Structure formats: structure tokens, C-alpha cells
Amino acid sequence: IVVYGRCLNFDLSSRSNLVVCLRNLQGIETKYSILKEFAFSSERKRMGIIVSKSVNPGSGTNHQAEANEDAEVTFILKGADSIMINFMSNSEHQQYIRETTEDLAKQGFRTLVYGSKSMSKKEYNDWQRRVSLAEQNQMQMELAGEQVEKGEVEQLRSELEKGLNFLCVTGVAD
Fold this sequence. Notes:
Layout: H1 2-7, E1 10-15, E2 19-24, E3 29-41, E4 46-54, E5 72-79, H2 81-84, H3 91-106, E6 109-119, H4 121-143, H5 151-161, E7 165-173
Antiparallel strand pairs: 1-2, 2-3, 3-4, 4-5, 5-6, 6-7
């Protein structure tokens, strides 16, 4: 993906746990604060990230809790075609994904599908508050020795994944 980005005249200029910086052909750098990351799991077969375009990323003490007041918030998800196809908002894209991943697999490539969704800062902040509350409830139950079902947090993640805009299919040779 980084190589493909260079083909489109974008370069990943830096990446930390807090910030991703992209530079375009004119040398203009755009910084994105990382608001939330979803690690890959073999059970979910996908991973994601929520970022906000910002002027001074990471300048606040609790930047992951809420999006910057002027933030443009984007959720990006990548994963197995068999999972991702169900999250796409456009049925034409679903057909394209099926055909493309099948063609790439026949050539021996391992495929990933990428999608994204934009949201307002209010939508993100409301969603994040609900996730934080669900995670706190889950942690309290674990500390109390109670059996914990991860349904509420998982349901909130699934809510976010619905209606994605298709970005691309990639094929990687193993």
C-alpha cells in the first residue's frame, strides 16, 4: 500500500502510535491523529483505524477520547474479502470485489479489501463514549470474576463497520 501511495504521489513521511503523516508531491504534509485502532484477529479477519485530520495532532492530553473540534473523522477497515464484502454500501462494488479477488486468487495472490467511512466529530464522540462505557463495564465484570460476554463492544464495532465506501482490493504474493 505504501508503494501504491507513492504511485499516487503520496508518501508516508512518519508514523507513531499517535500520528500518521502523509506528504504529497508538492511537499505538503497532512497529519492525522490516531483516535482508535482495532487490531487484527483471526476470528474477525479484519483490522481498522479511526483517524482525524488535524493541525496539531497529539497536542491534547486525551487525544484518543474525543476528536478535535474541527476534525474530519475517517474510519478505515481492511480485511478478508469474505468478511468485507458484507460491509460495503454499494452492490456494484460487491460484485467487483468478488470478481477481482477471484482473479487475484487464481494468480496466487493473497487478497485484502479496504473500505472507509466518514463521520462527523459528534458521531465519533458519541460512538466513542458508548464504547468506553461498554469497555469499562466489561473490565469491571472481569475484575469481579464474572463471566464476560464481549457482545456489547463487538456490537458497537459492527455498527461502525456497516455501510463502508469501497476503496480498493490489493493482492500480495506470499
